[in-house]
Specification:
Layout lengths: L2 H5 L6 H12 L4 H8 L3 H11 L43 H4 L22
Helix pairs in contact: 2-3, 3-4
């Protein structure tokens, strides 16, 4: 009996994981990968979520991270100037340092299949 037949219906083996990786690289749908492996799509989905890792960028402390509220923000005069410009457009102050409502924008691509973000 082969290794594949012994694991049928129980766990994913390394060959299955390689097929999942290839499917993600080729932008296959979750259903296509599941059909190829003869597994439930939920199993594949959980496997991807469980074994993904987030690559942390080598961002410097001074790098500007976009604010989650940036599009709707209308704050002015955070720099205590009477400039009247919106702080998100100000050339003199980085509003993310002065604003008490600043929150880092999270990547929404990690919430849905394929639960990873790839840079081409």
């Amino acid at each position: 009996m082969s290794n594949y037949e012994l694991s049928k219906g129980k766990h994913l083996i390394m060959e299955d994981r390689l097929i999942i990786e290839y499917g993600l690289d080729q932008n296959y749908a979750l259903r296509e990968i599941a059909d190829k492996l003869k597994k439930d799509p939920t199993t594949i989905s959980k496997e991807i979520k469980r074994n993904r890792f987030l690559r942390v960028s080598k961002a410097k402390e001074n790098d500007i991270h976009p604010c989650q509220n940036r599009r709707s923000c209308s704050k002015t005069n955070l720099c205590n100037n009477a400039c009247g410009k919106q702080c998100k457009k100000c050339a003199f102050i980085n509003c993310y340092r002065a604003c008490n409502e600043y929150s880092i924008k999270k990547c929404v691509k990690l919430n849905r299949y394929p639960y990873v973000f790839s840079i081409d």
